[in-house]
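Recap quiz, item 2
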Amino acid sequence: MTKWVKLHNNNSGSLSLVGDYKTTGRDSLVFLVDASKEMFIKGEDGEPSNFDMTMQVVRSVYTSKIINSHRDLVALVFYGTEQSKNPRNSFKHVYVYHDLDEPGAKRVQDVDALRGGKGAQLAAKTMGSGETSLGDALWCCANLYSDIKLRLSQKRLMIFTCRDEPHGGDSVKDRQARTKASDLKETGVTIDLMHLMKPGGFNVASFFRDIVSPPEDESELGLQLEPCVKLEDLQKRVRAKEQRKRAMARLNLCLGEGINVAVGIYATAVTARKQAPVRLYRETNEPVRSKTRTFHTQTGSLLLPSEIKKAQVYSKKQIVMEKDEVDAIKKFDDPGMFLIGFKPMEKLKRHHHIRPAVFLYPEEDEVKGSACLFSALLTKCSERNVFALCRCIARRNYPPRFVALVPQKEEVDEGKVQITPPGFNVIYLPFADDIRTLDPPQCPVASQIQVDKMKEIVSKLRFKYRSDAFENPVIQQHYRNLEALALDMMAPEDMEDLIMPKVDQIDGRLGPLVEEFKDLVYPFNYNPDSKPAAKRKTAGTGGGAEKKPKVEMPEEELRAHMQNGTLGKLTVAVLKEACKQFGVRTTGTKKQELIDALTERLGS
Amino acid sequence: MDVGFSMSNSAPGEEPPFELAKKVIQKFVQRQVFAETKDELALVLFGTDSTKNSLDKDDQYQNITVHRHLMVPDFELLEEIENQIHPESQQADWLDALVVCMDLLQTETKEKKCDRLNIVLLTDLNTEANSEQLDVIIENLKKAGITLQFFLPFPVGDDEEGGGDADGRDPSQPGTGKGLSKEQKSGLDMVKHIMLSLDEEDGLGEIYSFSKAIEQLCMFKRIEKRPMAWPCQLTIGSCLPIRIVGYKAVTEEKLKKTWTTVDAQTNQKDDVKRETVYCLDDDNETEVQKDDTIQGFRYGSDIVPFSKVDQDQMKYKHDGKVLLGCTWHLKQISDEVQRHQFMGTQVIKIFSAKDDEHAGVALSALIRALDELNMVAIVRYAYDRRSNPQVGAAFPCIKQDYECLMYVQLPFMEDLRQFTFPSLANNKKFTPSDTQLSAVDSLIDSMMLVEGDDQKDMFKVHHIPNPAFQRHFQCLHHRAVSPGTPLPPMEPWLKTALERPDVISERCHVPLEEIKRKFPLTEVEKKKKLKTSAQIFGKDSEEPDAKKEKGDEEEEYSLADIAEGSVTSVRIRGQLTRRIEQLLSNKNTHYYMKSITCIQAFREQSVKLGDANLYNGYLQSLKRSIPNRGLEVFWNLLVQDAITLISKDEVEGSTVSKNEANQFLVSEEKKEEASTPQAEDTGDVDDLLDMM
């Protein structure tokens, strides 16, 4: 269904944005947060409490859902509270703060209210901390899910707690919680544990091992995770779980001779855009729907697809084709990837870039044995530093493209959280048409002294790049504006523009280096804002025919320039004059040739 | 072009030179037409039975016909070449023809400004040419700045030149250098003489053989765009500006022209009009004027009215300066900025501003400093004040004859999706054994696309023309010259260009067999695989998948959404069922999908109104009628979407239990067979409608 609906939604988007049939429906996420006293204990040196940290994460998930997938459903439930609030109020000590629904401005505000010291007070006032029954809490969450009439494609529940034995050894409650957890898992809910730091360490094995869902790869990895101490870690861990892996396509990677490895293509980076506006009726602010129809100009009757054709005009001749012919032209083969061969990594040119890369991972569910062969290819390609060249047809009626499959090994951080997943990065390669012929202008080359000065500058500005360090100011500003309007705020929240270079800081770091470099490179009075045509420069040095006497330069000055490698700063006229002066015969008229000749002469 | 008597002579099994020459011209004109160049072209035939040229006087310049005067080539010319040019029975002096051409060029370009004048001669040189005037001709060619190209049926003796041996290697060349007639030999000498006197070094490079030319011309011209300079400044900190100029170097090129929609009968595009109307989401679908609407944005579940004016006022603004951000921080190239993190759709090469040698030196210093330190500059890039700024990397690039920075966009935090995937290495089930690994090793060995010590690349993707464009033009051309016939198959050369090179295919055969043995691969049979319409309908599906591009992942579609969209307006349920029946009568996925949407809407409405019977009754009778009406495919879609009966749990008045509701779809598979034989029981459409 998804596919079909997409066809008729012509609004926006790009190739990578299409989900596949397995993901029909909405994603849902329940935050089940421990509200016991332990959660509110502040860390040493004023570190935020676990509760505070959790609220920050919940807020960031809310806002990111609003931006990226506002149709996902999110709920926030507290357990271990004094007060109770849930549909039918059948569970004690469970407080449903937000039931499963699309996140909106109000909800963001609600969560904001729970942050910081004031938030803790508010939480104490409205909910308080009381007895804990995780079983009841899970049961309550199960009801939230079953109350939803929409089709859900992913059901996820995250438990945030710093107590590894929530029931303090009450085996009846423990058992009840386990039963409810397994009921939930049976209905397709994935339960994750976001365990937070507590004095003495968090023992996952004692209780939660039976609560959480086993990790995807059936390894024990998930349970060895250290509890989160820092906000960033928690954020990262939540984000990794919360974002849904969505294969753009599932294909066969054909090696030849009928050897097909099933693979899924994932978009790991998609340009986020500002959402398209919704049209509203001026009088009532209710959304209006748009209908587009094709009709006959003369008769005014609506035209069926069979009543129209497609045409292009070349040199005054109209060439007409049926609609399905237009599609047929694009078809080369069925979707799939076909291995052409391998090439050493250095044959992959950095500037051969036309589209963001996608990611390839085996689909063991489709063809058994895929993961093993895929893994072997990955190991060997990475060991031998080669990439695989493939012809790729990503979906039906797509013309072929060539792609480079670049191996990427798995990497994990100290906390055993995966930083880069194992698989191939798929890099789209340009065809001949995609490469433009440039006529590179002749540019002078800097001298080593100038280069060295620049190296000093460059070294001062060194920092460590992180791909997630930059927020898109356009999108952030847009949503802040919306937020302000939606929440009736006086002014949008201030935003730090992360991509604007911190000029003052840079200037501070560079100090006198900039002036020194300019002295080496730019002539006096050089103004880069003007259009410094040749005239301007000569004007600066004296201009016109009368400058002739001035062109001569004392030998010492010339030698100084040569030693500093700044001969290039002089004009061609000056250099030519200097050549004459020293009796240097040059055949060339190019600046570099003059400089070379002079250097040779004066250097000897 | 020589159309004379000897041009139609050929050895058995070979195409006569005439046909080959005609092909060369056709291909060439085709390219010109589709590239829509402004180049003008004239066609002069010699060896014709008649004579028609401006120099025709007193038995001179006979049997030479100016077929078409200098003008931009079009389809008319293509058609003429196809239908009007035939081998004729006379012979004419090719030097005379050359003179006619020169005269034509001189007289017809007088009023025009031309960059280049060129004469292409296609002949077999089988007529004796009068060499008396040769030097005069050469002198005139030089004076007028006319260049010459010769296309001959045979390759020119490479042995004498010791130069390129490409032609000599090809044994299929008709009459390779041997068996030339006396006339041809002397003609060839003259050709060489002319060419060498015009251009001492590369003169002979402009003599081609027909077959070689066809090979090269079969490609449609690649799309060429004049690079546009983008002047701006690169600033480091606040006070170190460098004047630069950027050029798009690599970007995915699109076809210049798009398809227009025309009326199927008249082929007129003016007969078709598209319009968009807005309507309220009420029962009457009240239309509202566009002027009466304002724009709003979604903020999660809320919609915030936000006028364009407000939006412009409040939007993110950056300094108006057209300035390419700043090299503010720099970093190790190798590990931090990785190739797969590149965003955007282009690579920009950055040079220093023209005529500003100081900027040149400054930029050169930066490029070299980055290169020597093995770093890249992370910059903020803004094309101009209206465009959205980007963050990107500027890599130093030092080539033999120039140096520049190469800019590529990097991701924003919002663009990234941090997916985690199960580990492959830590999973024992997937760990390949040593023998498996060595099988892959030898596969890689056999399939390396580089050869020799210098690692010559055997398969350069960036030398292959975009096959989609080639095919597009091939089909357009075909439709233009032979309308009414089905589209031609793909050109064989294009197919070959996309395939694994033959050498590799041979070499990798054995290692692949080994892989096959070592790695068992079994397709997993799914018990009940979910099907999409596309999978069910395969290639016949009406809409091409390519269009899915338009989809938008941010939008999570569910049936409920569509119901809100295109069909909820049909509120009255009776109307809905009639619509469903109407849709189902068209046996077509497209309509099936619509019916499902309607059914879904029907169901939702029923639940809302707390009345299940009408819906349940309809669905049950619909199910009964499936076999008779041959709607199994439709039913599968319905099952896949899990559109069940309305159960007691949802609506109190329902007589169906939750279990029954679910069974309704599940049991279908078995029942289907049982119900097939009762074909005469026509639970037909009318009955269904009557029920309503």
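The longest helix of chain B spans residues 589-609.
Chain B touches chain A through 240 residues (CB under 8 Å).
End of item.
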